[in-house]
Amino acid sequence: MYTGYFGLKEIPFSIAPNPHYLFMSVRHREALAHLTYGLGETGGFVLLTGEVGTGKTTVSRCLLDQLPENTQAAFILNPTLSSQELLATICDELKIRYRKTGATLKTLTDKIQEKLLKNHQAGLNTILIIDEAQHLQAEVLEQLRLLTNLETHTKKLLQVILIGQPELQQLLQRRDLRQLAQRITARYHLLPLNREEVAQYIQHRLAIAECQQPLFNRRAIATIHQLSKGIPRLINLLCDRALLGAYGENKQVVDKKLVLGASVEALGAELSKQSWWQQGSGKLALAGGLLALTLVLGFAVGNYQENVRQQELIFVADKANETPEMTELADKPETSPEINWSLVIDSSRSLPQAVRHLFSLWRLQVEEELSEPCRVANSYELSCYWFKGTLPALLKLNYPAVFKFIDENGVAFYGTLLGNSQAYPSAEQGYRFQFNQQEVSVDKAWFERYWQGGAVVFWQAPKNALFEPVTGIDEQSPLELIQWLENKLSEKQQRPAREVQVMDAMLKNQLRQFQRQYGIDGSSGAREQTLMLLTNTVDQGQPIFK
């Protein structure tokens, strides 16, 4: 194999869960902190969700390693069980003796409750962790809720951590599970690694394998981030195959070409191939249309497939599900007689429908009832900003947003801004919006006619020491937030970060320079719009906006 060729002590990118290679990104540490905080509460359920391969099990195992000695934990890896089988498995994990033949739900429940009482009297906490919890049946979840009914005046005797894919969130929205959902004391949705974290992840694993030289160049890492979408498991597959390819071609450094070649073997042709918009970009560039490409976000109806490109991450439509009429509609400006605006407006009256689309740009499939979008956003670690102002000011924030429009009868309708429109000669003359399931271009006159300056934006606010979102940083803020501000400003201004003890004159001056660059009022420190710009990771693919 290639280990001897590159001077590695072992294979660094195995998909086996080796604790020596544990990499805890900022997101993983936040997830761990949320789980720890939830267990520190008086009890109930704690929820951790994330896409396949994002590191949920890694976080849970790290949590197990950090549990205090006065804790007895049961870990269930295969939850595809009936209620009786689940209770029997819990008994096995907690070393509860019971009669294997003829055991009933009542018998098993009584045994578990007896054990919980004994643990409590002995000063022991009892924790149940269920991985792949999206596979749990509704009646099994209800049985779990009944187990947590045993409690003292101050805490529940059983704490449950549910770990699963995003479908788990949808499952818990069922009306018959609302009592369980109300008992969730902490929840965290684990997002994939961004581009910077992918580079750190690769370097970390190479360092553990005692690598003495850089094995991946900058473009290779960017391509790995693009193809893996920041999912550690896929990063491992790509890196392993790319190193094998470099060994086969007698190369010392992995480049973009090797990564692309490895992607066909590691991910399959369908996942690694370029989509139509990537293949056509070269032709547009030759025609002088590259600027238009960078201004346009493609988003059409149908079954959505996610495609990632370095600093150009967008959702595009599954062309097989588009109709000719839809394609024609999306390509034409507002003045086209093909658009029936009465139908478009009437189909776009629902704010929850528009907000659901906004969530999708954050790679979140939300099934909750969305009459209170900001409350739901907070549960996904997103902050909600209700914008009031001009479109140029909103565009400077560089976030997707749901706009509230008012028709001639004074009735509201909603659309999601997708970007500037190439249907117009100037980027300032037209915009692309999604109304319900239709993507259309509108001109500036149409926009100014219907918009009255209201929009909602989701963003990821920085957190304080209590993991609460922060919407402003000034001289009176805690030192860790002031240092965070200095670090973020240094990244944006491409300068070395300083270690600060207070918000000194230099930091204030650099903050004002940054705010003047974007036309933001800086009279009261760093408020929401400043923090939104500092935390913006569109260039790293989160959220998806162009």
Largest sheet: 6 strands, antiparallel
Using the alpha-carbon principal axes, give the shape: globular
Poorly predicted runs of 5 or more residues: 269-337
Mean pLDDT score: 79
User: How much strand?
Assistant: 15-25%
Number of helices, where a helix is a run of at least 4 consecutive DSSP H or I residues: 24
Separation, N- and C-terminal Cα atoms? 42 Å
- The radius of gyration is 26 Å
Oligomeric nature of the chains: single chain
**Relative helix content:** 40-55%
Helix/strand-derived category reads: alpha/beta
| Spatial strand order of the main sheet | 8-13-9-10-11-12
Number of strands: 13
Short description:
The chain is α/β, with parallel strands linked by helices and 546 residues long. It has helices spanning 3-6, 26-40, 56-66, 83-93, 105-121, 138-147, 167-171, 178-181, 195-208, 218-228, 232-248, 256-267, 269-272, 276-286, 290-295, 324-331, 341-346, 351-361, 373-379, 391-397, 444-450, 479-493, 505-517, 528-535; strands at 44-50, 71-76, 125-130, 159-164, 184-190, 304-307, 314-317, 383-388, 401-406, 412-420, 430-435, 438-443, 451-459.
